[in-house]
Amino acid sequence: MSEPQPQDPSSPLWPSVVTAAITCSSFLVGMVAGHKLGRPVRRLMNMAKVGPSKMVLVVQGDLKMGRGKLAAQCSHGALAAYRQAQQRTPLLLQAWEDTGQTKVVLKVDSEKEILKVVEDAERKGVPVVSIRDAGRTQVPSGSLTVVAVGPARLSDVDSVTGHLRLL
């Protein structure tokens, strides 16, 4: 006598096979959906915890850099700040990325003022990166061209740069 085939709806094994298949499928779908939904939920919770954030690039205006040079120096600053944040503050970096990567460019009139920005940021524990030029084109070698503050909480960045003017 042969065993009943599970494909036969009249077979007593049929309901248990169907139930097992549906259960396994539901479990797998739930695992995949949970994994895919879990990450966005964690990211939303992280954004809510961190709050608004931004990066400010402070340019030393008395160097009289051309627009291209200025753009290149700001790019160096943004990349250096990003790399620093990857190592030191990855959750804050993720929140900044998830909220649009706000960047603002401000200016100061002298090296003394830009050094004060660096000093204030360091004293307050706000991430800061200084960019010095190689001196191959428009400015002398070693000139402090840009300071990147952040990415960090909006209030922390503003406590350091809130008094400065837009470029």
What does this structure look like?
The protein is an alpha+beta fold. It has two domains: 9-50; 51-166, Bit1 (3-Layer(aba) Sandwich), CATH 3.40.1490. It is built from five helices and five strands, in the order αβααβαββαβ. It has helices at 14-50, 67-88, 90-98, 111-124, 154-161; strands spanning 53-60, 103-108, 128-132, 144-153, 165-166. A five-stranded mixed sheet has the order 3-4-1-2-5, with helices on both faces. Helix 4 packs antiparallel against helix 5. The longest helix has 37 residues, at 14-50. It is elongated.
Percent of residues in beta strands: 15-25%
Shape: elongated
Instruction: Give, in order, the helices and strands.
Output: HEHHEHEEHE
| Secondary structure category | alpha+beta
If you average the pLDDT, what whole number results?
85
> What strand line-up does the widest sheet have?
3-4-1-2-5
Question: Superfamily at the CATH H level of the largest domain?
Answer: Bit1
Radius of gyration: 28 Å
Number of DSSP-assigned strands: 5
Calculate the terminal CA-CA distance, rounded to whole Å: 90 Å
Number of domains: 2
CATH class of the largest domain: Alpha Beta
CATH architecture identity of the largest domain:
3-Layer(aba) Sandwich
Largest sheet descriptor: 5 strands, mixed
- How many alpha or pi helices? 5
